[in-house]
Amino acid sequence: MLNLVRASMAALFCATLTASPFALAQELPATLKKIKDSGTITLGHRESSIPFSYYDDKQQVVGYSHELALKIVDAVKRELKMPNLQVKLNPVTSQTRIPLMQNGTIDLECGSTTNNTERQRQVAFSNSIFQIGTRLLTRKDSGVKDFADLKGRNVVTTAGTTSERLIRKMNEEKNMGMNVISAKDHGDAFLMLESGRAAAFMMDDALLFGEIAKARKPGDWAVVGKPQSFEAYGCMLRKDDPQFKKVVDAALADLMKSGQINKIYAKWFTSPVPPKGLNLDFPMSPELQALFKNPNDKAIE
Amino acid sequence: MNYNWDWSVFFREVPSGGETYIDWLLSGLGWTLAVAAAAWLIAFVLGSMLGVLRTLPNRVLSGIAATYVEIFRNIPLLVQLFVWFYVVPELLPRELGNAIKQMDPTTSQFLTAFVCLGLFTAARVCEQVRAGIESLARGQKNAALAVGLTLRQTYRYVLLPMAFRVIVPPMTSEFLNIFKNSAVALTVGLLELTAQTRQITEYTAQTFEAFIVTTVLYLMITMIVILAMRWVEKRTRVPGYIGTN
Question: Less crowded by CB within 10 Å, the N or C end of chain B?
Fold first, then answer.
């Protein structure tokens, strides 16, 4: 009994110790220096964020964000005059991406990461690379045309997303009597929609189009409703590293101003993409066009 | 590592307003305890019955129990939960399946999670009970039958009172496991403790604070369980058997 109490005290003590800032005070070297010294740059990528960063049918990482990441790597090679720089790929999830960035496992993450002020406390963001609106995915014959049609029905969304906050808030404010289900990831959320547990799936529109591209019968599904919010995606890098951020931002601004970005956009959003060769048919929004004309790293709140 | 510590994060108001992140943790804790307790009820009752069946001289009955154990012990818990939640409603008659799917989501998630966890753990409890009964000297059963007790009476008055006391230590482990395993409920969308922790991480980007507090909470739950089971162990100790110093 006494031993037990002692053991638990020891465990708690260890926990507090790790939690103290002193144990972690060891600073990482600036990213560019780290890349130069090790001869490698490690990119964080997603496994199923279609069409941003995901595995294709040959288990290769592909996607819009990944292609931009590779362009940034080219710029880093030029900056450091290291044409043989090695690129390592490290898969991340929405839970692991920030800690892995902070502890130096990955140097750059381009996926579907929203730039917001909470995250800016932990990491930095590049010039925004994409902009989404939060909308609804539903079966074409479900009768759901907009958010108002969801009264009294089950709606699924992914846990921890802006969509979740918005739909819960809307439910309370407008007294809509919806049952909001929080699925653990986009794939699970779509499964709940597909199996009939929910009438609609609220999420970033680009990801919804991505889910359609993965679906067994893409023709059954439609993205509907007026966007409830807009969010900017950015590439994530370590905080307080102005030299590296400058290289990343300049590389992205070049792509946007030279118009190269339009080709990359067309390749992933208005042409057939792996794994099923489906065209997302997602034309560039006026907001995104404005962003490309005037690259910036601002969060939309 | 350049991490920005901020322990005040728990007292911040959540984005939808009206509560703080502490409330999320507490509600998560509540669901974790509810799932684990409800599942334990199923696991203990069903597991004990199956454990007795496995030791009966009747081949059919012990065969049924053995089959149950092999099925529920050999399929990963996550897969079982997936089957109960997504596959079973499709196998039922269409109307019944749809009724289940249109139920209040939290209710259906909770029901699926504790039934699944209970049935899974029952297989493990069954094996503990069987081991307890089989660990007793064979002479006890023979003697009980020889003095004229029926088989039912032999179990009720001779075998089970001993077996249950012998297996308190391994049952403590099963009881602890059920609390920790209850985290699988997050895969069907139930916002239990681990799910709430992940959610706080997503909303605030303060990963370590959230997970440290949750670790301590799990530690406290298991510590309380251990202390309670120690007490049970002391009270039910059989003189001259394991656990007596």
Answer: C
